[in-house]
Amino acid sequence: MLLELQNLSYSWESQSHPLFHHLTLTFPKGWTGIVGANGCGKSTLLSLIAQEFLPEEGHIRSPGMVYLCPQRTDAMPSDLPELLSYPDAHAGRLISQLHLEGDWPWRWDSLSHGERKRAQIATALYQSPEVLLADEPTNHLDADASHQLRNALSAYPGIGLLVSHDRYLLDSLCDQVLFFDQRGCQLRPGNYSSGKREAEKEHKGALKSHQRALHHLKRLEKEHQRRSTLASQSKKRSSKRGIARKDHDAKEKIDRARLSGSDASAGRAKAQLDHRIKKAQEHLQNTTGGKKEGRIRIHGLPIQGDAVLHLPQGQIPLGDQSWLDWKELFIGPKERVALMGANGSGKSSLFRHLFHPIPCPHSFIIPQEIQGQDERHFLEHASQWSKEEKGRIFSRVERLGSDPLRLLSSPYPSPGEIKKLFLSWGLEKNPALIAMDEPTNHLDLPSIEKLEEALEQFTGALLLVSHDHSFLQRLCQTHWTIEQKMPKRAHVICERN
Predict the structure, then answer these.
(1) Which pTM was predicted?
(2) Which residues in the chain land under pLDDT 50?
(3) How far is the C-alpha of 424 from the C-alpha of 390, rounded, in Å?
């Protein structure tokens, strides 16, 4: 049983370069990871395999049913109600394994994105497709839910393609990984970590080759300059201009030099060197020295006073007759707060309550998802930025590893690209407080590291909602943890280091 891609080509109408050109790949049973920068074409490849898009050239041979589990969680899977009716033992195992609840179809809008993602994966597995395409399946999931998901996916017996930035999931599931980079894509055996080590080894070799080629070209150019000087001197010596009309001895010496060709040898050597330099330049273009990306610097707005955000004691409903309460909460001008809790505990509800209906002054807020109409409005707004504003914002987007011009020209920019653009735009405000709900969702691994560096240097206050513990550990000293105190009631516990 194989999934085969033969000479596949595809490009967006608004882009001059094809996304894929004569791509030929074979995927056997088991899981294949797909990794690369935001916007490189990972999700588009899944859409082509699922026949949501049609290739310009080539064809796809599938052994049977193909099911695409998308990255976004906006829409409820149409077969969720059937799954939750317990039609068979397979459905019962999935419901139990991924902790689904029977009333989820009727309160989909109130579910956390983590709960939606579990429902999405369960319905995909319930269909038992021959080919399962999973796009960022661990987005929004806490540690327990991610563990449950890994167990469920590891039992899948068909051909699985996994687009993910979750290193642990890629290492746990995958027998091979397809790496996208600036040069194209390459399928490597083994899990993500082994493939990454091999790619880094090859990259170091390419850098050495590039440096050798550059050194060789510089040496030839230096020799070219020396021989150009000699050729110029020879030309002057072979000229009779300036010699007296009756100075026959001097004219005879020049004629003998021209006849022997000794003075012209420098000119011939220079011409030969021109050809060698052209070859060296072509060789240099075929090597890569890697792209150096600068850091993103965020300057916080200085705020006078003890707090940039203050929330008096209170409580909010969570939508299923349960409540979340807290004692007085505040964030100091330079405080860094991590908001933590299990999926569905109320993190995003509290996050929204903090900034709605009146946003905190001098704050920049990034929601967990920028969806539908909001995304379209933002992209329309981006097209109207001034030239100077675009220059600054696009520079930040590039430092996060995406091409901003390609992003704006694409009819379907990825969620990761949208998040990078939105973040880069918000930093124009030099906020006193940056609040981010699941900031690492949808971002590729290099972008997460760049974001960590930038936020680490930020001089203002931070509020971060995340399941990425290494991300929070590096950046935050204060923890707001949501804990279940009794049935239908949770409480926010504040701990400061």
Answers:
(1) 0.65
(2) 259, 262, 292
(3) 10
- The pLDDT score that the predictor gives to residue 337 is 96
Strand, coil or helix: 78:
coil
Q: Among 482, 479, 483, 473, which residue's Cα sits nearest to residue 494? A: 479
Report whether 290 contacts 181 (CB < 8 A).
no
In a 10 Å sphere around its CB, with 0-12 CB exposed, 13-18 middle and 19+ buried, how is residue 22 labelled?
A: exposed
SS3 content of the chain, % helix, strand, coil (to 5): 45, 20, 35
Coil/strand/helix, residue 1: coil
Tokens representing residue 22 in the block: 């004569």
| Measured distance CA(434)–CA(426) in Å, rounded | 9
**pLDDT tens-digit map of 369-397:** 887 778 888 888 888 899 999 998 998 88
Residue listed under structure tokens 């687009």: 163
Q: Is 186 strand, coil or helix?
A: strand
Task: Tell me the three state secondary structure of residue 9.
Answer: strand
Instruction: Please tell me the predicted confidence (pLDDT) of residue 45.
Output: 94
Task: Report DSSP state, residue 52.
Answer: S
* Burial zone of 136 (CB within 10 Å; 0-12 exposed, 13-18 middle, 19+ buried): buried
